Amino acid sequence: MKENRVQCHVEELLRMIGGRWKVVLIRELDSGPQRHGQLMRSLTGITQKMLTQRLRELESDGLIQRRDFQEGRVKLVEYSLTDWGRTVMGIVMDIHHWTVTHHHHFATPQVAGKSV
User: Fold this and answer.
1) How far apart are CA 80 and CA 77, in angstroms?
2) pTM
3) Mind listing the pLDDT tens digit of every residue in the chain (116 residues)?
4) Which residues have a Cβ under 8 Å from the Cβ of 56 and sit 6 or more positions away?
């Protein structure tokens, strides 16, 4: 039997920014608006499909905004952090500083059985 439970706000925030790419996207957009292609080039290893999905999720959650515009005959899309999304950047930086301070508690990455 599945239990109904109230989800706390921290869990909701972690859902919004969790995963491999969302925090990275927020960090990239913290420097200012960027086009889809710019984000694709700056995020090594992300697929077109994954980038599009994560951007849509962040937009749906109100953390980023999408702006469609035209330069000449070319239609372009630009993404930027919302005011609310910029407040999340402070939390991301707090987490970053915490991980730097406590890095010795994290497991050493392993590659083919060897320490990196």
Assistant:
1) 10
2) 0.79
3) 556 665 688 888 888 998 889 999 999 999 999 999 999 999 999 999 999 999 999 999 999 999 998 889 989 999 999 999 999 998 888 988 998 999 888 876 655 554 44
4) none
